[in-house]
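Re: the multi-chain job from yesterday

Posting the exact lines I submitted so nobody has to dig through the queue logs.
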Amino acid sequence: MPRSTYTEALLGPELFKKVKETRILVVGAGGIGCELLKNLVLVGFANIEIIDLDTIDLSNLNRQFLFRKPDISKPKALVAAATARHFNPSSGIDIHARHGNVKDSVNDLEWIKGFGLVMNALDNMDARRHVNRLCQAANVPLIESGTAGYLGQVTPMIKDETECFDCVPKPAPKSFPVCTIRSTPSEPIHCIVWGKTYLFGKLFGEDDEDMDTEELDKAKASGENAEEIENLKKEATAFREVRKNLGEEDGPQRVFHKVFNEDINRLLAMEDMWKKEGRIKPVPLEHEGIMNGTFATPPSRQAPSTSAPNGTAQTNGSSAQKKQSLKDQRELTLKENLELFIDSCKRLSARSIAYPDTPLSFDKDDDDTLDFVLATANLRATAYGIANKTRFQVKEMAGNIIPAIATTNAIIAGLIVMQSLNILRRLPLPSAPAESSAGPAIRNVFLRTDAIKPLGYSMPAKADKKCSVCRDIYVPIKVDLEKCTLRAFVDEVVKGWLSKAEFEGKDEDEDIEWTIFEGGRLLADPDFDDNHERTLDDLDVKRGKMLTVRDEDGKYRPVHFSICEGDAQATSPYSLPSEPPCVPLAPPAPASREPSEEPIILDSMPPPTNNVSENTPISSTTAVGTKRSAPDDGDVKGATEEEQVVKKRKVVVLDEEDDFEIL
Ligand SMILES: Nc1ncnc2c1ncn2[C@@H]1O[C@H](COP(=O)(O)OP(=O)(O)OP(=O)(O)O)[C@@H](O)[C@H]1O
Ligand SMILES: [Zn+2]
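And the result, structure tokens for all chains:
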């Protein structure tokens, strides 16, 4: 008897047929993803694609049960698929596993349109937002999910029916003023952020000399404090110098001297800085004194830690006590931190020298990078009289670790499948397209710490009319990027094809003027045609990106042309859908564009879980990387005025995992 007999009886032949035929995309093969893939296979889903960018780590094995020790370092998606396939050998399932980033340009609108249902099992906002936008653009239902400790939630998102991921504002990222991080830290987290996002980047990250200089010159030209700018330039040059020599025997020691002695002395010379009440002057650290035990550890501004000693004066602290605690949960002495700093610098610089074209980035599971941040943060904390942290604590804080509980993941994965069945009931069969029928209500389901009623639900809210993600219009365009010029796009696609669209409330004699953007870049407007003869490829408009067309008056919804792979057989450099879209009116402009302080949480929802609504870039203009200008911008103009305001207000640095923002 085939394993699916009972499931078929339970679901009924029609729904079971949909289960077998619908193409499912699972994004993420981590804690939730592994549980989900197993469930899907056992239920009888037979046409699954799973994508994950990561490889298996030892720390995944406690809950990502599709992986075993010998799988460490192998791609998660591939191993998950290979293991899960065996769970239901009789169903003839096809699992297509891909080791890659869902944000890669090959994963464009045409790709996502190939799925009947998408399930997110992700751990970061950036990727969640990306998939949400793709699903909204392609009109493919998405089930979003997340867990944090004992809490979890499952949220189905269907275009024109429910709110989308971006309809609900998310809490702003934890943010710190740049001065707190760079000059006046007062908490261990300030020192950790400094080590992880600032010093690490300066020494081992991408060397951004041109950008630095260009940015500082621009700041100076726009009237910012010239002396401060010159100081920052000098600092950048000095870093470049120490970075160049990092591979030499005394390179790490020179870095130590620069950042923990010279730079602190420079700050101490700015006397006004230390007049502010409550500010404690740092003490410059001395390599030799720390190593030979003569350096007097600055007093801690916090109550002394009882768990472990700090500073050379205490280096002989109870060895019995040290042995008792786990290695990673013991505080290092000042000398140990210094030795670890020198050693981790050597390890990292050896990697940089071996692979000069690959800038390093912090990863909590990469011992070299964690050791560096641990030692750096503790040395800085000592200089500023701030409590030190153990390796375990630094890993948790720097890695933004949210406790993961296997049982929560398993329950949430089960609930995803339940909601997927609710969605499938309403969808037409892939093999026999028909009108979708109204099926059972889909629900936002959540798991909470209520012993009597651990599961709760709410009906999904309607889409926010102002949401720029799910309310805008999307059009796939297949383009030969090397042949299609911006002029062809403007004249033929926008002024030709799009102008035939039905615009809500358009007067007969109304003449619409257009502006064209890619991301935050203005490519053309009625008074700006310098880019017209350039090809889209030359303008760095690539597959997976979007050309956004707005009317000058902001009367209508923007139309996003989603760049898809060109048709090799086509004679024209681009091809478009047969019918232009209907373009509705834009909602009235909001009185203020300030993001709301408080996140809006749906009635009866649990508090936002870190994993679900963790630190959020305010808009796409504030995403990682927007501080860089596009390569070879040529005549391309910078971000719009409005976007520049947002940038100025919010972001200087947004770290890769979106967890700390430095204002
Ligand atoms: N842009 C992306 N494209 C593809 N996969 C992604 C992307 N971003 C995150 N992921 C994957 O989503 C999964 C999320 O799983 P999970 O939350 O369990 O995180 P983890 O990295 O496995 O565990 P931990 O963070 O606790 O070490 C990870 O396997 C991660 O690689
Ligand atoms: Zn929305």
